């Protein structure tokens, strides 16, 4: 009888909440701070109501500082399962740089205020001085709070709390963002993050793929079958095989179903893993 062992798929701990900060650009193109933006992603199975949620770089409730702010999502805001959303400091500038509009913006009046993009507004209790988000290139952070003002997620660079040590603030080039390596994983360390490669610089509106997740071998009607749960937003699935865990080869690609019948001819000792693209 062949011996099959499934590769554990989620290396690390699952993110503690469905919505995470998935990418952040704090070293904007040029020197215009309104070119900064933050991306969030919902890896959970359900739509999340963002009404009353907050995001910003003001680290303490009631603190003052005109270059830091805590902004509130507008009433009725939500993020669907598998959805990516971008909060830009200036939707007009974001459109010029990336060719599409963000989901939200924090600018208003002459600073931006695109008519098709909802505005985040200052939280008067958390941020009584009404400052603006101005992400320092050397030492700052982003906090994501739910409606109960609990910290849902956070990321920092330099020595500004949260990740210790934080992301390296001297590593990125102008316009190069930091992204979560796997937006379904949150170990609370800088190891969760990486710079977007220089040939791309940043990827607003998309998250890193592929995803790895749990699968099992069952006795199906056509013989031993590999099965796994469906993932919202997946364009397809791939099955990979390895005899040593050192090298992996695709044995099935562009699958639109969540199962794969194992071939009859297999090595005596083999490992499988499933990826969602």
Shape by Cα distribution: elongated
Q: Ends: how far apart?
A: 32 Å
Low-confidence stretches: 1-16
**Tally of contiguous helical segments:** 1
The run of helices and strands is: EEEEEEEEHEEEEEEEEEEEEE
Instruction: Assign the structural class, choosing from mainly alpha, mainly beta, alpha/beta, alpha+beta, or little secondary structure.
Output: mainly beta
E-strand count: 21
Largest sheet: 6 strands, mixed
Order of strands in the sheet with most strands: 9-8-3-2-13-14
Please state roughly what percent of the residues sit in beta strands, choosing from under 5%, 5-15%, 15-25%, 25-35%, 35-45% or over 45%. 25-35%
| Rg of Cα set | 21 Å
- Mean pLDDT score: 84
Helix percentage range: under 10%
């Amino acid at each position: 009888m062949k011996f099959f062992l499934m590769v554990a798929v989620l290396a690390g701990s699952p993110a503690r909440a469905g919505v995470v900060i998935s990418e952040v650009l704090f070293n904007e193109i040029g020197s215009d701070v309104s070119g900064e933006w933050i991306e969030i992603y919902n890896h959970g199975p359900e739509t999340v109501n963002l009404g009353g949620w907050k995001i910003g770089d003001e680290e303490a409730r009631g603190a003052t500082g005109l270059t830091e702010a805590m902004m509130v999502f507008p009433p009725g805001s939500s993020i669907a399962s598998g959805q990516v959303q971008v909060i830009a400091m200036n939707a007009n500038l974001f459109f010029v740089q990336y060719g599409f509009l963000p989901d939200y913006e924090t600018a208003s009046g002459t600073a931006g205020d695109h008519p098709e993009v909802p505005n985040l507004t200052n939280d008067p209790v958390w941020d009584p001085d009404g400052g603006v988000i101005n992400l320092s290139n050397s030492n700052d952070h982003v906090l994501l709070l739910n409606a109960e003002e609990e910290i849902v997620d956070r990321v920092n660079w330099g020595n500004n709390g949260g990740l210790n040590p934080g992301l390296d603030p001297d590593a990125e080039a102008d316009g190069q963002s930091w992204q979560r390596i796997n937006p379904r994983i949150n170990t609370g360390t800088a190891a969760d993050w990486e710079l977007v490669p220089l040939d791309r610089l940043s990827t607003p509106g998309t998250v890193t793929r592929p995803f790895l997740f749990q699968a099992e071998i069952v006795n199906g009607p056509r013989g031993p079958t590999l099965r796994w749960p469906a993932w919202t937003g997946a364009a397809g699935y791939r099955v990979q095989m390895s005899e040593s865990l050192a090298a992996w080869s695709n044995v099935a690609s562009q699958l639109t179903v969540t199962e794969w019948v194992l071939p009859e001819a297999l090595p005596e000792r083999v490992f499988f893993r499933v990826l969602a693209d």
